[in-house]
Protein: tRNA pseudouridine synthase A
Amino acid sequence: MRLKCTISYDGHLFNGYQVQPGKRTVQDELEKALAVLHKSKDRIPVVSSGRTDSGVHAAGQVIHFDTPLSIPAERWPYALNALLPDDIAVKQAEIADDGFHARFSAVKKEYRYFVYTEKHPDVFKRHYAYHFSYRLNVQDMREAAKHLIGTHDFTSFCAAKTEVQDKVRTIYELDWTETADGLQMRITGSGFLYNMVRIIAGTLLDAGIGKISPDEVKSMLEAKDREAAGRTAPGHGLYLWNVYYDN
Amino acid sequence: MRLKCTISYDGHLFNGYQVQPGKRTVQDELEKALAVLHKSKDRIPVVSSGRTDSGVHAAGQVIHFDTPLSIPAERWPYALNALLPDDIAVKQAEIADDGFHARFSAVKKEYRYFVYTEKHPDVFKRHYAYHFSYRLNVQDMREAAKHLIGTHDFTSFCAAKTEVQDKVRTIYELDWTETADGLQMRITGSGFLYNMVRIIAGTLLDAGIGKISPDEVKSMLEAKDREAAGRTAPGHGLYLWNVYYDN
Structure:
């Protein structure tokens, strides 16, 4: 039986999602908990919709794994949450057909990036939002964002150290909304390159403080050169929010 | 010069506010940062409006200390925040007259207690709100709360291990409001006994799940016996929110 689960994790104390020798990762904790549940010496392999970086959070990451256990789907979150550390939680589980694949069946992903602009640091947000205490021109940020919507070669918005050759992706939606204490960037796309969302967030924040004009983002895109785009915003403001599948 | 500061701290990694040998405390970190700022071998004593327990947070704790330094008041938060660990932040500072005392000048304190009732744990709230996934009758909780408003002997709502003899306090306001994902208790009073707010929160949650009737709170109060009241809700849902002074 194949199970599809929606999970959330606080990325603060993880070295990212993917298993890395000697490092604490989300995948490692999931596979350990599943091995206990299956009374198995061997790992139960878990597939996710994709990796997230060190410090990056997930409110709606999706995984799948195969299991011989006949636990009812709605009981799986309770069974796993009892074994998982408290910075990972299974929010929902459903039986998927065998053809389902957490990564290759995904048709769209949604990320959100949180910024707060208060004068002084907020201790309760220090791991969960980027403290950017500048006056921001949100209109300019929205203007700048428009240049990135659509299908483009996002080489300028991809970390240099990547093996991926084809850097064409499609961004469906990219907007900034004001929250009680700052801003939230919401972005959906066909898929995302390494650090792409964080570079976009950093670049649009540069537009917000007038370091670049909104239209410069267009030439940044066309340059196809990482050096052309702005800074990489820190990981702790970023959340994999949702992964969408064709039902 | 006496300085009055409003500070916040995330109680999760502290053994409470007050200095304790060999333990990490808020007061210890404050006094260390001040000693560095004053280039002093000795501690600069800090006085707070009162102690908070291990795991308990503060959004608006108030402290005072005396200093010969002539740093403008609005610069003190920046100077201290640069030296403090990131789970303590100075939010505001002002020069107080010499007669001001963070504890004895306080006329009213406000605490808030956060509960969330979602089915599964929320990793982002695990240190910041009490996960109480039961259906709650908020109306009963409000009815029960009414019995505690006013001036009473709160022995039943005070931890047994306390040296305080006089347990008469006045509660000015006590109400529950619904939040996006649970409930928030807001309580203001003349002062609070050891664990008093957490015992009140636990007892009113008992009323919310029908374990006690709202009117039983009245007899609990009259019993003047800790055993008569309900459970002590966990510390991580509790925040010292505000301390009020006669200006």
User: Anything to note?
Assistant: The longest helix of chain B spans residues 196-208. Chain B has a mean pLDDT of 96. Helices of chain B lie at 26-37, 76-81, 138-146, 196-208, 216-223. The domain at 106-243 of chain B is CATH 3.30.70.660 (Alpha-Beta Plaits).
